[in-house]
Design brief:
Elements: H1 6-25, E1 29-34, H2 42-45, E2 53-59, H3 63-72, E3 80-81, H4 84-91, E4 95-98, H5 105-112, E5 119-122, H6 129-141, E6 146-149, H7 156-166, H8 168-171, E7 174-182, H9 193-199, H10 209-212, H11 214-224, E8 232-238, E9 251-258, E10 261-268, E11 275-282, E12 286-289, E13 294-298, E14 305-308, H12 311-314, H13 320-328, H14 342-361, E15 365-366
Parallel strand pairs: 1-2, 1-4, 2-3, 4-5, 5-6, 7-10
Antiparallel strand pairs: 7-11, 8-9, 8-15, 9-10, 11-12, 12-13, 13-14
Helix pairs in contact: 6-14, 11-14
Length: 368
């Protein structure tokens, strides 16, 4: 028998372990899709199968939309199902992502939770607190994970702002947060009709800019405040372009108060450009983001710094589907009140409900 040097054997074992790790990473998550009426569906449909996920079936009851999507993304029609329960029972996906209207998120959870299939919905979680509470009840009853996906959850700058806000030695206790989110408007940026129709429907979306972009600020502020609920919510809504947005607002400002802090959420379909940035001010410092990777910071001492971050700088997942897969396979634990968590997103829906009431009545709403 040939003798090998210990160093050679160690190298072989190390190489074998790397190969095994690589093989493990390449096992894709069997993923089902519940609805494709959301304009963010391109994030998913452009990558039906890769090392992270393998889309095994798509539920979409709108036959006309199936025609559009199958042609646009060159997806065989055999992938589509008009019955969500049938698709789940036949294909047995490990997880389901919901890309239908916000109103339809509850239907996805109602089908998946009793089958113990985790769900990730697009933001926000629900159109109103009644729907959100039903989702929470189902998740608890069947011990099934329900996550909410926000683009700003993928931003290293969002996570860095949170880390600095939690470091009271850097900026001191958080006092004021200003969040800017939105764009020129759904029609103005050319969203497809199937997306525009429900996005501008007060029932299917829960509102206009207030819901579409107010949810980002509520989500981030709840994260920064570690789940603390606001003491009051005040909102002013307008429809500046009533010829386009006939049923919903296109401009809303929401003010959240806390015992020692305040948050101003500027949600708009009237910005001259796309915005997803925030300003976090503490007693003696600040963190101001401008893009997903660029920000300015200043602590209690020293001059202002400009940072250009990589995802590895903050351990940020830039792929929500990988985050979902790793959470399902228990490679990570979803922290309570993190941007994806159910706890955080129940609070988001409560805040949006209060904002709608305030905008309608013209009065400050005491938060319960």
């Amino acid at each position: 028998m040939k003798a090998y040097k210990p160093g050679f054997l160690m190298a072989v074992l190390f190489s074998m372990s790397l190969n095994l790790m690589a093989q493990e990473k390449r096992v894709p998550l069997k993923l089902g899709v519940a609805g494709v009426a959301h304009g963010h569906n391109a994030w998913l449909l452009k990558r039906m199968k890769d090392s992270v996920m393998d889309v095994v079936g798509i539920y979409e009851p709108d036959a006309q939309l199936v025609e559009i999507i199958s042609k646009q993304y060159k997806i065989d029609k055999s992938m589509f199902y008009s019955d969500l329960g049938m698709m789940l029972d036949k294909l047995k996906p490990e997880g389901v992502v919901a890309f239908g209207s916000t109103f339809d998120h509850l239907k996805a959870v109602e089908a998946c939770a009793p089958r113990h299939i985790p769900v990730m919905v697009e933001k926000p979680l629900a159109t109103n607190i009644e729907q959100a509470n039903t989702i929470l009840s189902l998740a608890n009853k069947y011990n099934t994970m329900v996550l909410t996906n926000y683009e700003t959850s993928w931003y290293p700058t969002t996570e860095k702002a949170y880390q600095l806000s939690a470091d009271t030695n850097f900026m001191g206790k958080v006092r004021k947060v200003v969040v800017h989110d939105g764009h020129m408007g759904p029609k103005e940026i050319g969203v497809p009709p199937y997306f525009f129709n429900w996005l501008t429907d007060p029932i299917l979306n829960g509102g206009g800019a207030l819901t579409d972009f107010g949810c980002y600020g509520a989500n981030i502020m709840t994260y920064l405040m570690k789940g603390e609920k606001p003491t009051s919510v005040t909102a002013v809504s307008q429809t500046i372009k009533p010829d386009i947005y006939t049923k919903v607002d296109d401009e809303t400002t929401i003010i959240l108060t806390y015992p020692s802090a305040q948050c101003i959420i500027q949600a708009s379909w009237n910005w001259p450009y796309h915005r997803k940035d925030l300003e976090v001010y503490g007693v003696a410092g600040y963190a101001i983001t401008s893009t997903n990777k660029d920000m300015r910071i200043k602590g209690k001492t020293g001059a202002e710094e400009k940072l250009e971050l990589k995802p590895s700088d903050t351990n940020t997942y830039t792929d929500p589907f990988k985050y979902f897969a790793d959470a399902i396979r228990k490679k990570i634990t979803v922290p309570a009140n993190s941007p994806y968590s159910l706890e955080n997103n129940i609070m988001v829906v409560k805040i949006l409900d209060a904002a709608r009431e305030s905008a309608k009545t013209g009065k400050q709403v005491v938060f319960k």
